[in-house]
Amino acid sequence: MHLKPLSKDAIPGALAKAERYRLLNEPGQAESICLDVLAVDPDHQPARVMLILALTDQFGEHPAAALQRARDILPHLHDAYERAYYAGLICERRARAQLAKGGHGSSQAAHEWLKDALQHYAEAETRRPSGNDDAILRWNACVRLLEQHPGAASADDSSARLLMLE
Question: Chain-centre distance of CA 122, in angstroms?
Fold first, then answer.
């Protein structure tokens, strides 16, 4: 069996379907569609962004593989703002997945991920287009999450560091 290519004319509709699959909590389907789009147009920036989002949607199930694949896309984003913003989003979503998973050291690991997210969002804020406060909104969400989990202090123990790499 082999994969069948999309036509370039089908890309907008395919990306709309990928977004719907994300909303239906089927990130694997969205990922597949993005890969189909990128097979036809390897430099399609909206497909790269959608792929990052679909991969981060999978952090609860496949954190290590999805994390690395999402990070590998970042250098291929043309815009410096988007590279910083989506780097922050990757870290923030990893932190949220870590908190949802729970377990020994998860709060500390999530805290480290959130600190990284805040650094990326701060960078994105300096590069943001006029009228785009998305990085500020994400920053505030991270700060609120840290406030909701005050016991999540920075960890020096190796178990928390291992959880961060999962």
Answer: 16
pLDDT interval class at 143 (50, 70, 90): very high
Helices (H), the chain: 11-23, 27-40, 45-56, 63-73, 80-101, 106-127, 134-148, 158-165
Provide the residue ranges of all domains of the chain, joining segments of one domain with +: 1-57, 80-166
d(CA 164, CA 166): 6
pTM over 0.85: yes
Give 83's contacts (C-beta < 8 A, 6+ positions apart): 74, 75, 77
CA distances to 31, 81, 85, 115, 117 from 122, rounded to whole Å, are 28, 10, 9, 11, 9
Q: For residues 116 and 139, what is the distance between their CA atoms, to the nearest angstrom?
A: 11
- Alpha-carbon distance 155 to 29, whole Å? 36
DSSP one-letter string for 17-62: HHHHHHHTT-HHHHHHHHHHHHHH-TT-HHHHHHHHHHHHTTTTT-
Task: Give, as one character, the DSSP assignment of residue 9.
Answer: G
Residue corresponding to tokens 């190796």:
158
